[in-house]
Write a structure and sequence with these properties.
By secondary structure, this protein is of the alpha/beta class. Helices cover 34% and strands 25% of the residues. The strands form 6 sheets. An 8-stranded mixed β-sheet has the order 12-11-8-13-16-17-19-20, sandwiched between helices. It starts with a strand and ends with a helix.
Length: 391
């Protein structure tokens, strides 16, 4: 995602307004400048002073604010923004948008905008399910206004159902996706991620310390860039990425089957998963009881997913990952050559597994391209930009 984007956050009256405080904090942390505009009713739920302290900018509420030089805040604020997000968007405010009403600063700003508009609805489930509300939101979509949510869950009224505003983290993901250049539109990408688990008996297995964070970051970033993404995930405690077809396969053989089932028509394959090289010859039907001082387990080689994909008659653009504990560049280069990969990503295993950041070197026919240590989301962006340039 490009840095230094500017967002107008419009807050309307509703109990979900409290979530806007956390959203502003997350946006600022992500280098997105935030200008808050509130309706009068929104100030009954959360104060402008709170939003000013979090955003670092004055909060605008009224149409006649004299601090705007030309006296036209509805023009000035929208011209400086890359997008406007209304969160929460009440049923009443959405009705205003639909009919082009402009009786307060926020509605006038939305009507006079020349940037994209996104709305995050928040209302009682009966209000959301009302046919009038549904018609209003369908028309908003037809007017090319993005509707984010709503979510499903417990509501302030004590009922449970559709209508609650998405959480701040979810809205941040949508905003990042919106601001990400769509350089991979039209591309189909298959990514593996996470650890595999090779069972020994019904309660024990052989696995590794991979968290899946790098693969999930690549999947989310690729989707944000416009690609059609399939993620085949091994063992991971991460939530499925947004707008990604996520499938699960715990063992190496199950992951192999899932990959081969989905590989046709893919343009790019990225093997990030830490796939076990070996699996037990046999899985005990019952828990192995402790008896002798030692236990011998016979292992067999697992299929090599990356090598077999790269050797298909018409393979996709294949990218491998090499997590090494020593001689990182040397071993990664050997792996790239042996598997005939156009690109491999090398990293030192102990500095990558489980961490939120990473330091990698991209290795291709033109040599080594070391990247600065950064968050795995930023590393994912660099990797995908490099792939796009190679393509």
């Amino acid at each position: 995602m490009q840095k230094n984007k500017s967002l107008v956050l419009g807050i309307t009256g509703g109990i979900a307004a409290y979530k806007a405080a956390e959203l502003v904090r997350l946006l600022i942390k992500s280098n997105i400048s935030v200008q808050v505009v509130m309706t009068e009713s929104a100030t009954k739920f959360i104060t402008p002073m709170t939003m000013q302290a979090l955003s670092g900018k004055p909060v605008y509420v009224g149409m006649w604010d004299s601090t705007i030089d030309n006296g036209m805040p509805h023009i000035e604020l929208s011209r400086e923004a890359d997008a406007i997000l209304i969160a929460p968007a009440s049923a009443e405010f959405v009705a205003k948008l639909l009919h082009g009403r402009a009786d307060d600063l926020l509605s006038t700003l939305c009507l006079a905008r020349d940037c994209p508009l996104l709305v995050a609805p928040a209302m009682n489930k009966q209000m959301w399910e009302n046919p009038a509300t549904q018609r209003n939101f369908e028309q908003l979509k037809a007017d090319n206004i993005a509707v984010l949510g709503p979510g499903n869950g417990e509501q302030a009224c004590g009922e449970t159902g559709d209508g609650r505003m998405l959480e701040a983290e979810e809205l941040l993901a949508h905003i990042k996706a919106h601001f990400t250049p769509k350089i991979l539109t039209g591309k189909k990408i298959l990514i593996t991620a996470g650890a595999t688990l090779e069972m020994i008996d019904p309660v024990r297995g052989i696995t590794n310390l991979s968290s899946g964070k790098m693969g999930y970051a690549l999947a989310q970033t690729a989707a944000n860039m416009g690609a059609e993404v399939t993620l085949v995930s091994g063992v991971s405690h991460l939530s499925a990425p947004m707008n990604v077809n996520t499938q699960y396969a715990s063992s190496a053989s199950a992951m192999y089957a899932k990959v081969m089932e989905n590989i046709q028509s893919q343009d790019i394959f990225i093997g990030v998963a830490a796939v076990a090289d070996y699996a037990p010859n046999e899985i005990a039907n019952q828990k192995i009881k402790k008896s002798a001082d030692s236990l011998t387990i016979n292992l067999k080689r697992n299929p090599d997913i990356l090598a077999d994909v790269a050797n298909l008659p018409s393979p996709p653009f294949c990218v491998g990952f090499a997590a090494e504990s020593e001689n990182v560049i040397e071993y990664a280069t050997q792996k790239r050559t042996a598997k005939k990969l156009p690109l491999i990503v090398a990293n030192e295993v102990t500095s990558a597994m489980g961490n939120d950041d990473n330091q990698v070197t991209l290795i291709d026919d033109n040599g080594n391209h070391p990247l600065q240590r950064a968050s795995k989301l930023n590393i994912a962006t660099e990797i995908l930009n490099h792939i796009q340039r190679m393509l």
